[in-house]
């Protein structure tokens, strides 16, 4: 019911890279993205949910592969508008931690 609601409201689902470090995580998540596609979902964002700098972008390649495996287009949002990621590079908007002390958003780019 949740995935159907996401598709019906054209809400983009996220692939979170945190659980993609082992085969079990991928095995458990794959059916979710497969079903999302079957119901009509076509777009995903990728997030790393990093709590330490070393976690930023970790397992990004696996997230791209997962999106590709289920024919899902990776998108990002800027000023509340969805933009399709044309290339397979990685652009992250990162807020400093702790957030109350730093309001800046830093852009990191990986190729």
Verbal overview:
This protein is of the alpha/beta class and 111 residues long. Helices cover 30% and strands 28% of the residues. The strands form 2 sheets. It has a 4-stranded mixed sheet, covered by helices on one side. The chain has a two-stranded antiparallel ribbon with strand order 5-6.
Secondary-structure topology with pairs:
Blueprint: H1 2-8, E1 13-16, H2 23-38, E2 43-47, H3 60-69, E3 73-78, E4 81-84, E5 90-95, E6 105-110
Parallel strand pairs: 1-2, 2-3
Antiparallel strand pairs: 3-4, 5-6
Describe this structure in a few short sentences.
By secondary structure, the chain is of the alpha/beta class.
Rg from C-alpha positions? 15 Å
Average pLDDT reading: 81
| Major sheet size, sense and barrel closure | 4 strands, mixed
Give the SSE string: HEHEHEEEE
Share of helix, binned: 25-40%
Q: What is the count of DSSP helices, taking H or I runs of 4+ residues?
A: 3
Structural class: alpha/beta
Strand composition percent: 25-35%
Q: Uncertain spans, ≥5 residues at pLDDT below 50? A: 93-111
Through-space gap between termini:
37 Å
Strand order of the largest sheet: 1-2-3-4
Index terms:
111 residues, alpha/beta, four-stranded mixed β-sheet, 3 helices
């Amino acid at each position: 019911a949740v995935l159907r609601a996401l598709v019906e409201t054209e809400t983009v689902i996220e692939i979170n890279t945190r659980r993609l470090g082992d085969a079990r995580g991928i095995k458990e998540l794959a059916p979710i993205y497969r079903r999302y596609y079957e119901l009509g979902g076509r777009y995903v964002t990728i997030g790393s949910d990093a709590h330490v700098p070393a976690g930023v972008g970790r397992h990004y390649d696996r997230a791209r592969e997962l999106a590709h495996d289920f024919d899902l287009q990776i998108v990002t949002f800027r000023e509340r508008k969805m933009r399709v990621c044309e290339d397979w590079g990685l652009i992250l908007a990162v807020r400093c931690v702790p957030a109350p002390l730093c309001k800046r958003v830093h852009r990191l780019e990986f190729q």
